[in-house]
Fold this sequence. Notes:
3 domains; disordered C terminus
Amino acid sequence: MLFGLGLISLFTGHMASDLEWYSHRLVRRTLYSTLDGNYRAPIDVWKSQYSQYYYGCCERGRRYAPAVSERMSNGYLLIGTSGGLNQQRTGITDAVVVARILNATLVVPELDHHSFWKDDSDFVHIFDVDWFISYLAKDITIVRRVPDKFMRSMEKPPYTMRVPRKSEPDYYLDQVLPILLRRQVVQLTKFDYRLANNLDEDLQKLRCRVNFHALRFTKPIQELGQSIVMRMHKMAHRFIAVHLRFESDMLAFSGCYFGGGEKERHELGEIRKRWTTLPDLSPDGERRRGKCPLTPHEVGLMLRALGFSNDTYLYVASGEIYGGDETMQPLRDLFPNIYTKEMLAEEELKPFLPFSSRLAAIDYIVCDESDVFATNNNGNMAKILAGRRRYMGHKRTIRPNAKKLSTLFSARHQMDWDTFAKKVKACQRGFMGEPDEMRPGRGEFHEFPSSCVCKRPYADELSKEVYRPPKLVAINLTKADSLSNGIRRGST
């Protein structure tokens, strides 16, 4: 009888372990195949169900050398950024990395005061400069200005140069470092996207520390941005932030046509003359290639087709919309609950109104904190925020597949709504901010910071019992082994 019980226990114990093992393999295989894009589950428009398996990681490696002190550095590096807020942000990020490559002391970067936006804000008006300096102290040494004593001892003014876009680290070592060592102060102008996209992992992680942690907005900007976020959440449990980017400069630069007749062609054509090097483009050809921003109406159609209902709250981040209320009305018809920073903080916003970059920073905060962020183009703000939201937990970020959507929009009256919505959902797969969209080497690093996003081990998401047989089974196996050994020895 004891021998029979031992065999039963042995058999059932192994069977339970085998079933559990195969069950675990099946669950893990299903998850991994889904994360790799082989299995197409229905899209949750508000949140990726796989975001919990990824997290931002930009820690310094064990062999990462400490920052070089100001006294021991190779000289002072001055950077002059260009463009609007987010273009300047990329310049500041790369400036820190270049200073690291050159073992230079970085002087707090200068912001562009002569761009299209005509904003005379300095670094200290937009970013918390003390935090910027202290947070990066282990990476590089940063000072507010070149010491006066040092400047007076120089025989010549700082050497000024402009480096090509997307230059490799070797370019800076070969072309900039010798001048820096000789002159001690070098100024790099028009600094935006002046560093290669693909760098080694330590430098990529430094980019992430700068962009996602060190560049913190000043207290007044931060407080007003968070206040607007709270007001949106007070009205709605969750909301979408839409970066329309449908201002006249963007439309003119695109070379596209948006149905405004000769008046539009003339107005945008005059603005386009500001860029003397832009080629003549075919509006129809650009639209077929997916290079044209969607109109506000088209953005609304896309969101409704994806499954957002008309009672969804929208925060519109944008400057002055080309065409004004007439252009915005079709979007309001689809989503009546539309708000802007001007509507939510009219009085508090007045001190910021003369400064386009500070206004853009407020929009940046609200878009970053939104439950869903929908972009309308692949410009600087769209890329920077898409990358940040991936780093901060793959918060839902929708980027229009403009190339395929343009065909759908032109033919939408030839199909019923259900068919249209089904086709929109199909062509938007791969453009919803899912983790599997980010692959090493894809696109700009600011948008796809693959070196700074880590995958959690699947074991962390399962209880320990999945990996270990239950204690009862282990005891049964032990008893069975003892019984069988005892019988072989002839004991009872």
